[in-house]
Amino acid sequence: MLAIVLGAAAGGGFPQWNSNAAACRRARSDDPAAQPRTQASVAISADGAGWFLLNASPDLRQQIEAQPLLQPRSGLRSSPIKGVILTGGDVDAIAGLLVLRERQPLTVFATAKTHDILDANPIFNVLASDIVKRQRVAISETLTLGGAEAGGRLRVEFFTLPGKVPLYLEAQGETPPIAETDGTVGIEVQDRGTRLLFIPGCAAITPSLATRINGADVVLFDGTLWADDEMIRAGTGPKTGARMGHMSVSGPSGTMAAFEKLEVGRKILIHINNSNPILLDDSPERAAVEAAGWEVAFDGMEIRP
Ligand code: MLT
Ligand code: MN
Fold it and tell me: Is the C-beta atom of 165 inside 6 A of ligand 1?
């Protein structure tokens, strides 16, 4: 299996278009220690020929142009991208589907809940139904991806995570419940016994999630915030990480602490918000995550589990 991080940042990217915070200014100024990152997505392949995207970020067009392996190789119109696998209905997971609208055959794999969101929004009908398949995948159903030419070795499974409805579906003025439904899922990719998990948004590590994570070769995990209240303290927003359905990296109930008891080959933080200081190569927070055995994903990162 080969996995390539197409984008490592959370929704908004790094820098975020309307942020004038110090870190975003550094990212705009070609500071080598503040590398810009596009919005979270990973491409996976068994053989390097056929590719599947884990989420379709709003930056997908730019991500394809930055990655020769995802560009057309034959004929007048073609693409090595055979499908997209969605973890939920958040804008940063689905908006890139609109980039894939030029009558190219592919399959969109998602849970029933996420497909209901796509089906309810007519803008996605721009993906013509005669060539773009929408395949509903049940939790724990095992998909075998593609034919031989598309890397038929990959086995893919969804698993539920504690999370919330997408921001644009929240009831105005109400705090949405954090619940474990098929609306927010993680993706497990297996290739001949090697396991990679993609978990870009997760509110808590439940016992069943801990069991799944244990023994994985690679885990790409929710690195949205360093501290639960960092956006409030920075004055950039009123929400905590918990309110947004994201556990934080630091702290006694944070991600680093939760993983201490787990056995994982490579632990990689992804979906990193522009407020998170681990984005800066020279920050003490970056040093702390690295000392705890974590890697910080960057655009173009290649993973060979
Ligand atoms: C999230 O990860 O919490 C969402 O992508 C936020 C958003 O939709 O902006
Ligand atoms: Mn997001």
Answer: no
